[in-house]
Amino acid sequence: MNPDFWHDRWQQNQIGFHQQDINMHLQDYWPLQGVPEGGGVFVPLCGKSRDMLWLLSQGYRVLGVEISPIAVQGFFKEHDLEPRITKRGRFESWACEDLEILRGDFFHLTPDDMAGVTAVYDRASLVALPPAMRVDYVAQLTRLLAADTSVLLVSMEYPDQEMQGPPFSVTQGEVDSLYQSAFQVNLLASVDILKENDKLRSRGLTRMQEKVYQLIRRVS
């Protein structure tokens, strides 16, 4: 899955992964992350997620990264925000007060880009990637994050043969396998979301759970 895939999805407005409402798991479980007010929160593959506005409203500084210019432009336009657009290394920085979105490739980030980040919110990043890329994604995240950085991860599980991702099914066993060498992995919640989602049932799914994890970066 190369960058052209995501450029095409945004160009064709095939963005079923974009949520209009603030994610309920973010609101319920973010307080457990213990991030101090004013702390920096990183949102990988952020799209134009409204969850970033919620994080801002809680007093955090937000750093997103997104490869699609359509998504970045759409976020600022839809919320009547006037960005300062500058060059930042290999990225184009779109910034407004305590929010900055780096337009470019997640895999081009360096630890210097993450200065001040004390937590990560991943609702639609890991599940957006096929298996081989998930390994690379976690390796990159591990390189980027300092010890004790907290990650709130929302993933989903469903029978692979019943739906072609993205979003992809990522089992609890795979989450453990991907993260446990560098992170402490804690399962916070497992929620059946199929019974309240007619669209998913119409696609032939017989089971879908959202799982919420807290990951703590270990000392290397």
Structural topology:
Blueprint: H1 3-11, H2 24-29, E1 40-43, H3 51-57, E2 61-66, H4 69-78, E3 84-88, E4 91-96, E5 99-103, E6 117-122, H5 131-144, E7 150-157, H6 172-179, E8 183-192, H7 198-202, E9 209-217
Parallel strand pairs: 1-2, 1-6, 2-5, 6-7
Antiparallel strand pairs: 3-4, 4-5, 7-9, 8-9
Tell me what you see in this structure.
The chain is of the alpha/beta class and 220 residues long. It folds into two domains: 88 residues, Vaccinia Virus protein VP39 (Rossmann fold, 3-Layer(aba) Sandwich), CATH 3.40.50.150; 96 residues, 3-Layer(aba) Sandwich (Rossmann fold), CATH 3.40.50. Helix content is 27%, strand content 27%. The protein has a nine-stranded mixed β-sheet with strand order 3-4-5-2-1-6-7-9-8, sandwiched between helices. A hairpin with a 2-residue loop joins strand 4 and strand 5. The longest helix has 14 residues. The protein is globular, with a radius of gyration of 17 Å. The model has no long low-confidence stretch (mean pLDDT 90).
